Structure formats: structure tokens, C-alpha cells
Amino acid sequence: MLCGIDEAGRGPLAGPLVVAGVVLKEEIVGLNDSKVLSEKKRENLFSKIKEKSYYHIVFTSAKSIDELGLSACLKNSIIEIMDILKNNCDEFLMDGNTTFAIENLNCKIKADATVPQVSAASILAKVSRDRYMCNISEKYSNYNFSKHKGYGTKAHVDAIKKFGRSDEHRFSFKLKALDECNDKDSTKSLFKD
Fold it and tell me: Which residues make up each annotated binding site for a divalent metal cation?
């Protein structure tokens, strides 16, 4: 059996990185890359996936991302998933183009759109992260996290300019809009995953 692994929250300016692993126990109709599904469809599939699979979801805080780096956090999350689900499958497949040098892990570009287990992991990761950002939105009302989920929208960047960063923000992600990047830096944070 195959365990599909995918992440949500690689690129935002705020909030956690969320990585999910899924081993399907039965077929689920309608799975696809979470980014092409409506919020309602993702929510409906979320509960079905949890009912019909072995799964594990790992949250890594913005603080840990700042301290360890994004790649190390991704790698640690994948290793945890593989350890938890190893008795339920015999193969692990990560969406993307790297295995982070993890033994027994395969990768495939666009697996989230073509491999049901990875699509399911994509949905669990995205819905879990979106719910988290909505849950903290009231506490951090200056930033409107429920609307942009921590991504680098103009409104979010404007809020950071006005209020600074909160403890949910990634301080290691530098913004050209705030003159934080020098010529050697790249803006790591303004892409959606």
C-alpha cells in the first residue's frame, strides 16, 4: 500500500507548515490537488479521507521554521509521518521534486493531481492549515488571517507595515516591500503552494 505525502504552507509569511500523510483504505471519489478544489469540496472530502484512511498530520510553527529552516522542518515532518504510518504501508510518495535525502521516500512532480493518496494528503494538509489560520484570526485581528491564510497578499503586507509582525509570522522570510532584502536575498515568501 502507498502512503501519499504533501504539504501546505511552504510559502506564507505567517502560520505553520502543515504536512500530511495518507494511506487510503478504500477509494474516495473526487480527489484532486487541493488547490483546484473549492473550499466546500475540500471540507467534504476532509471528513471522508479521515474516515477511510490511516493518516498523520504534522504542524510546524513559524518559530520552528525560523530556527531550523523550511527544508529541515519539511524533512522532520516527513520522517515523523513515515515513522507513524510505516506499519500501514510499504511505499512512500512525496509530491514535488525532492526526497530530502530520506531513505525509502520517492517523489513525483504533480503527484497531488495524479496520485489519489497524495491528493488526499494535499487536502488534509490544506484544510488543517486553513482551519488553523481561521481559528487564530480573531486573536490577531489586525492581520485578517482568515481571508489570506497568511500568504503575502497586498493587504497582509500592508498590515505588517502598519503593525509589524506577530508571533505567528515568519521573521526569516524577508520582504522586498519592507526593504528587508538585499541583492543576495531572494523573496522566499510570495508564492502559493
Answer: 6-7, 95
